[in-house]
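As promised in the previous annual report, we have extended the structural survey to additional targets. Below is the entry for NADH-quinone oxidoreductase subunit F.
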Amino acid sequence: MTLTSFGPANRIKRTAETHPLTWRLRDDGEAVWLDEYQAKNGYAAARKAFADMAQDDIVQTVKDSGLKGRGGAGFPTGVKWGLMPKDESINIRYLLCNADEMEPNTWKDRMLMEQLPHLLIEGMLISARALKTYRGYIFLRGEYTTAAKHLNRAVEEAKAAGLLGKNILGSGFDFELFVHTGAGRYICGEETALINSLEGRRANPRSKPPFPAAVGVWGKPTCVNNVETLCNVPAIIADGVDWYKSLAREGSEDMGTKLMGFSGKVKNPGLWELPFGVTGRELFEDYAGGMRDGYKLKCWQPGGAGTGFLLPEHLDAQMYAGGIAKVGTRMGTGLAMAVDDSVNMVSLLRNMEEFFSRESCGFCTPCRDGLPWSVKLLRAIENGEGQAGDIETLLGLVGFLGPGKTFCAHAPGAVEPLGSAIKYFRPEFEAGIAPSSAVVPPLAKPIVVGA
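The corresponding structure token record, generated without further manual editing, is:
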């Protein structure tokens, strides 16, 4: 996946001052290996962190920067790091990189791992130093075979250069890093399900508390961060908090830059590093180039299949968590999808809910039974065989599977697009209700219990 930089007037130049994640990318899309990465100031931030900064200072710097998780939840990274125990006697701790990128329409982490594997390794090395973790794992989506190959090569390069292993940079600090390929389940994107899978268990989410910072992998303190989140750490350490905060647009409550993209029938589908606070319209028109000739934008999702649909008039919302929340949904992963006017929303939602239903771990009843129920109803409506009350039942499921009603966030994310689709395109759902079911005939003879 080659990152594109199509702008309204001319191509945007990526520099270290404005594009901390992507300025090192090669124009040919090939991976940046160790020699080239170090020639482009790679591992300078790690050397600074090891030589000039106390471990707690690294944590505080990341906290002050306002960096938030880039996997979709948006939890403050420094706060999460601060949950790790301070007790020096706990000498076994783990750092996990969540690279199980299974969200439909999202491929940002794949680009970073395939083309800039050393950026992720440097981010994990600095994070491990800050968190006093002696071992790290990159839990990688199993289908990402190129990323696995590139990460393993980069790990070996870093070991040979003394940047991983024993006594890193003469500091006395040891850190081992392993690439672990998963078995291909969406639910592993939830951090405790990821931990269970890494341990060889069924990928079910765990009850929290205790949180992974207290009881994680093999019962030891564990910190789990997303790929893009960890890739932000070197620039924050190298160039400071004030610079990092200055990257975001005015009005954004989220700091720094974000990998954003657009897929669907747009003229220039792609992925770009942009400051938080750009509008959806800039992303759609100036970068993605608008819809292809002959197609009209019907609606769009701002950040993966688990986010609600928005209408064209919502494109002026700023792309940050609070900005997207103002128009009724979530920022998610920041990779948007355009839905064109030829798409039937019932068919689209049936396809989505089939995916979410199949990927449920089956642990809790609302998710295990509710998602297949939604698929059954949507399939009937799609075939013109829906019954009176089916739409109300679907809306009921949206409520029953909403936030706080299930064991983890899988089901709430699954039904968010369903609720928004019915809200904005209800006539398309009503068109699938069979005419004969519009009036339900009364029972010919009342049923009397015990008669």
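The first helix runs from residue 34 to 39. Confidence is low (pLDDT under 50) at residues 4-10, 440-451. These points will be discussed at the next consortium meeting with the crystallography subgroup.
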